[in-house]
């Protein structure tokens, strides 16, 4: 049995059955299984995840029952097989079918014949399958073609023109560049760029943030430069959040939803490790990881504290020069990194997000000094969680004024989808 496909199978099973995050599940399975080609595993896992609804649409033409009623193991092997046959030109058809059958013999006992028949039927007639008629139901057409839950397609069609929405859906299925920033306490962008290129990596300057570097090459995180704290991985959109906050040396700054800590570290570096950064999060375990990252980077001005951001700590009222609220959100701006987000259901938790975000923003605003800065950000593309939250906050809190805001989009800015708004207390 091929170790690469076996690793991909177990990764997808964890994502499907245990709601594991794709990036964490992949890294974990690759680390313990040590497959021959980690690149193949990643391509197969992300390919299946990014096209799951479309793959199930194809399967619906060949199975007599509803695809949703198949066991997870059967669905996963069939999706992997169809993806290899239809999307991976480098994989011979016989290998895709044979290896899928071998997986079925081991993990879907008694169903290997069924899976073999489905894949061979697809080989014969798969090219004849057509998408639903766009004119009959545009939401269904786009949902199947790009594999997004219909409510997300509907949401974006209400906000943008149809052609723009389709661009946005397609951009979410593209693999993002690996983007890093130098540790400003230990090196410069120019020096880091030189060191990386000497080690065989290709680098290009960021197009949005002056500290950003786009890097091509393998095992960057396992190398000496990373371990010695010379850089951090961070998308340009996240860097822009800190740039809009504009932290200064000697200030007191609060990051109220800090974990996993990328923005917190960048804030401290921008301050030259001079001042006071209060990084809080509701989860203590995440704060310990944040502290480990600060140690790797040589940062000493960060104080971590476990706190529920919906509550106000009266001891810190009007003590901060700047406050960052990187609020919990639906994550619709980062589907190109976490494709499983595309399949979230619009449930009670999703409906309640804007109210929770407004509560966190309102509570956190109490920490801002007169004349101080408040930045609200999310990694989503949903007006209800973004500018409408800010509008409601400003209506209820006239002591704050909006200075600048931006919605970054993957199809326009080639970044994650981020909303960033800077406000100032009068």
Question: Which features does this protein show?
Answer:
alpha/beta, four-stranded antiparallel β-sheet, seven-stranded mixed β-sheet, 47% helix, N-utilizing Substance Protein B Homolog, Chain A, globular, 426 residues, Rossmann fold, 15% strand, 18 helices
How does this model look, in words?
- This protein has 426 residues and is α/β, with parallel strands linked by helices.
- It folds into 3 domains: 3-128, NusB-like (N-utilizing Substance Protein B Homolog, Chain A, Orthogonal Bundle), CATH 1.10.940.10; 138-171, no CATH class; 236-425, Vaccinia Virus protein VP39 (Rossmann fold, 3-Layer(aba) Sandwich).
- Helices cover 47% and strands 15% of the residues.
- Strand 8, helix 16 (348-365) and strand 9 form a beta-alpha-beta unit.
- Helix 1 runs parallel beside helix 3 (38-50), helix 1 packs across helix 5 (72-87) and helix 16 packs across helix 17.
- The radius of gyration is 23 Å and the shape is globular.
H-E order = HHHHHHHHHHEHEEHEHEHEHEEHEHEHE
CATH H-level superfamily title of the largest domain = Vaccinia Virus protein VP39
Task: Report the mean per-residue pLDDT as an integer.
Answer: 96
Distance between the termini: 66 Å
Outline the low-pLDDT stretches: none
Walk across the major sheet and give the strand order.
7-6-5-8-9-11-10
Cα-atom radius of gyration: 23 Å
**Number of separate helices:** 18
CATH names the topology of the largest domain as Rossmann fold
Proper CATH architecture of the largest domain: 3-Layer(aba) Sandwich
Q: What's the total count of β strands?
A: 11
């Amino acid at each position: 049995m091929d170790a690469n496909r076996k690793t991909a199978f177990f990764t997808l099973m964890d994502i499907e059955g245990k709601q594991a995050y794709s990036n964490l599940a992949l890294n974990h399975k690759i680390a313990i299984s040590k497959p021959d080609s980690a690149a193949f595993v990643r391509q197969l896992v992300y390919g299946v995840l990014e096209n799951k609804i479309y793959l199930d649409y194809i399967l619906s033409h060949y199975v007599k029952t509803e695809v949703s009623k198949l066991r997870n193991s059967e669905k996963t092997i069939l999706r992997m097989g169809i993806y290899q046959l239809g999307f991976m030109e480098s994989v011979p058809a016989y290998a895709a079918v044979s290896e899928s059958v071998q997986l079925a013999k081991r993990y879907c006992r008694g169903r290997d014949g069924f899976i073999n028949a489905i894949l061979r039927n697809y080989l014969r007639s798969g090219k004849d399958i057509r998408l639903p008629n766009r004119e009959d139901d545009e939401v269904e057409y786009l949902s199947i073609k790009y594999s997004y839950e219909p409510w997300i397609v509907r949401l974006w069609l209400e906000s943008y023109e149809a052609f723009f929405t389709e661009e946005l859906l397609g951009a979410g299925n593209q693999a993002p560049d690996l983007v890093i920033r130098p540790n400003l306490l230990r090196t410069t962008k120019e020096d880091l760029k030189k060191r990386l290129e000497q080690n065989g990596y290709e680098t290009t300057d960021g197009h949005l943030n002056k500290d950003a570097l786009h890097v091509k090459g393998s095992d960057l995180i396992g190398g000496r430069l990373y371990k010695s704290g010379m850089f951090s991985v961070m998308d340009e959109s996240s860097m822009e959040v800190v740039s809009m906050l504009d932290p200064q040396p000697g200030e007191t700054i609060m990051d109220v939803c800090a974990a996993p800590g990328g923005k917190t570290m960048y804030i401290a570096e921008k301050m030259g490790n001079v001042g006071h950064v209060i990084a809080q999060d509701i989860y203590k375990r995440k704060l310990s990881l944040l502290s480990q990252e600060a140690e790797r980077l040589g940062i000493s001005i960060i104080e971590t504290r476990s706190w529920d951001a919906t509550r106000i700590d009266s001891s810190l009222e009007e003590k901060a020069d700047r406050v960052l609220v990187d609020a919990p959100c639906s994550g619709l701006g980062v589907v190109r990194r976490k494709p499983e987000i595309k399949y979230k259901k619009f449930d009670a938790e999703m409906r309640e997000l804007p109210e929770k975000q407004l509560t966190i923003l309102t509570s956190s605003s109490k920490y801002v000094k007169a004349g101080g800065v408040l930045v609200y950000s999310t990694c989503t593309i949903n007006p209800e969680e973004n500018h409408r939250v800010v509008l409601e906050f400003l209506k209820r809190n006239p002591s704050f004024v909006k200075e600048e805001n931006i919605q970054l989009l993957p199809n326009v800015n080639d970044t994650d989808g981020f909303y960033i708004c800077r406000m100032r207390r009068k």
